Amino acid sequence: MLGLFCFRPDYVNAWRLWDGKMLADQMRRLFSYNTWAWQHIYDSVEKLDADAYHASRLLFQGSIHGLLVHAMAAEHIWFLRCHEENPTTLLEPDEFADFVAVRTRWSSIRHDWANYLQWVSDADCKQFIEYRNTSGKPYSARLIDILQHVVNHATEHRSQLTPILHQLGVPTTPLDYIFFRTQL
Question: Residue 56, CB half-sphere, CA atoms under 13 Å: how many?
Fold first, then answer.
């Protein structure tokens, strides 16, 4: 049965798994987890000096600063897309001098998401969002898939940061979802 669950295409869509019930609540939980996990990253990043924070590293974004701005920019652009806006650019690292500036801007984005998600219903989760990428190419995706993508994207980048922070002597606490749920 497990193999069937993992590979059958009709099981890919979350709304089919749960028959469309409690989707919005689960997305709110995942976004709460996302905020909780980033907070643990922030606690470690705050302990770095400016040189370590901006140092060139083997990351696609070039530095801890670049990676954090990229992750924040992704959350920002997806929020805008969910509101029928289609920006042609992302937030860039050179727009933010330091971690304090990144964290301040990200706090505003988190607040926007929280306000939005409190009103999202299960029916909304099933609706398609029409959007364009930064090159102008049109796409369409269900809101639930966009929300899941935002959280998964953040998890990917936190997993890139945690070993670096550990090597720099400022490890995070475990960031697994189950730790978030059991600490409530």
Answer: 0
Query: How many C-beta neighbours within 10 Å does residue 115 have?
Result: 9
The residue type of 175 is L
d(CA 159, CA 61): 14
What residues make up the domain containing 154?
20-182
- Number of residues written out for the chain: 184
Q: Is 123 a domain residue?
A: yes
pLDDT mean over 71-92: 97
Q: At what angle do helices 64-82 and 143-167 cross, to 10 degrees?
A: 170
Q: Which of 75, 73, 66, 74 is nearest to 45 (CA)?
A: 66
The domain total for the chain is 1
| Interval 125-167: pLDDT, tens | 999 999 999 999 999 999 999 999 999 999 999 999 999 999 9
Q: Does 2 reside within a domain?
A: no
Statement: residue 102 has pLDDT above 50: yes
Sequence-distant (6+) residues with CB within 8 A of 46 are: 99
Position 84 in a domain: yes
CATH number of the domain where residue 105 is located: 1.20.120.450
